Each structure stands twice: as C-alpha cells, then as structure tokens.
Amino acid sequence: MSDQYHKILNVRELADSAFILEIERKGMTFEPGQHVLLGKAGDIHHREYSIYSGINDEALEVLVKEVSDGEVSKVLRKLKPGDEVEVQGPFGFFTIEEDFKAEVNPFLFIASGTGISPFHSMVKSVPGLNYKLLHGIRYSDASFESDHYDKDRYISCTSRDDKGSFRGRVTDYIKQVDIDKNTHCFLCGNFEMIRDAMDLLEEKGIPQDHLHAEVYF
Ligand SMILES: Cc1cc2nc3c(=O)[nH]c(=O)nc-3n(C[C@H](O)[C@H](O)[C@H](O)COP(=O)(O)OP(=O)(O)OC[C@H]3O[C@@H](n4cnc5c(N)ncnc54)[C@H](O)[C@@H]3O)c2cc1C
Fold this sequence. Notes:
2 domains; 34% strand; alpha/beta; single chain; 12 strands; 5 helices; 217 residues
C-alpha cells in the first residue's frame, strides 16, 4: 500500500479525449484488475482509476478519459512530465483468482470505453491467458492501443461506424454468439452496459459465480 507523491514520467495521447499517464511506480505492487485513487499532488479531489500497466512494467500507468464537465479528469489532462500526482492504493477485488489462472477455462472480458484498462493489465500480466475481449466504443478510433492484444482475441464493437470488428453494441454481439458455460466473464465500464450484458449472460446459462463486474459510473 502506498500513499505518496509520484512524478509523471510521460503522457501518451489517445483518440476520444483519452490519454495514458505514465507514473513513477516507486515499488508499488498490485494485482492486475485493481485500481488506485489518484489526484494532482496537493489537490483534495481524487478519483479511482484502474491500473493499465502490467505487474512487471517499470511505470505505473492509468488510462483516463477527459470528461467534459468532470472535476478530476480535467486536472489530470493538464499534467506534464515532472508534475506530481498523489497515488493511494492499490484497492479492489476485480482480479483473476489464483485458481482461475491455472484453469483451462476461457475468459470473456467485456469493456465499454476506458473500461478496457483492467483487462490491458490482466493480458499484460498473465501470460497465456485464454481470453476474448469485447470492447464497446462509438467509433473505431477509440479502440486505444488495440495492437497490444492478439488480433483474433480483440473484438471492437462500434456503434457509430463500420470500421470495427463488429457493427453494434457489445450486447448485440453477445446475443448472436454461443458462450461456453465454463467461461469466466469480467465486465467493466458504464452501469447500463454491465447490467444489460449481465442479463444476457445469465440467460445464456453462465452461472452467477462466473460473473464479475466493475462499475465506473
Ligand atoms: C473502480 C473504478 C475504476 C475506474 N477506473 C477508471 C479508468 O481506468 N479510467 C477512467 O477514465 N475512469 C475510471 N473511473 C471513473 C473515474 O473514477 C471518474 O469518475 C472519471 O474520471 C470522472 O471523474 P471527474 O472528476 O472528471 O468527473 P466528475 O466530476 O466526478 O463527474 C462528472 C460526470 O461524468 C460522469 N462520468 C464519469 N466517468 C465518465 C466517463 N468515462 N465517460 C462519461 N461520463 C463519465 C459522471 O457520472 C458524472 O456525471 C473509474 C471508476 C471506478 C469506480
């Protein structure tokens, strides 16, 4: 557990008002899927951000979307290398249990927008993971760093253009595929997507103890 000031090392700009902060790690240990509380050093306002980087990466990374009427994301957006943030954590239980990792059963990761962040950390941290990643986005340019995933494991579901892997919402995609009942399903992002996708997965016979969710907003 760390609770201290960390320097920004670099900022990677992405499409759709999103960006990645590369932050000094200072030896912080975490489980992929956990989040930190983050705010500008000295600022009283902090928000939760999933850790984007892998457990063996040198820097601690978070993927942030600037929310137009948001308080903290706008402040984080203005940070430059050398500035400091306060990092608390890690926190949370949205993680792959040790005994799941050893299983051959498949994982289905379902994300909306920046909800892809914990899955990026899981994929980078756990070699040989048997996963499929559904990423719900409006336009294909918001697929962020999709080249970091196996081509045949990353499926972008784009609701407003035809340039993704699938035209439609993640829920439309789920409706038209068979899902092995042994699949561990992890869902992350906005509440409506998670609720609707969970309902569909339950209808498809996925047991409740195979459903794991992290709601962002
Ligand atoms: C466990 C957890 C992990 C999270 N991880 C991430 C992450 O990895 N990356 C990330 O960008 N955010 C993440 N969030 C959301 C984040 O904590 C903030 O809520 C978000 O950055 C907005 O904060 P703000 O202070 O700018 O806006 P606020 O002033 O808090 O909120 C302004 C409005 O924006 C809405 N809002 C919040 N997030 C979004 C969004 N992404 N798109 C559209 N509207 C939104 C809020 O519901 C609110 O109505 C996570 C939330 C939780 C609970």
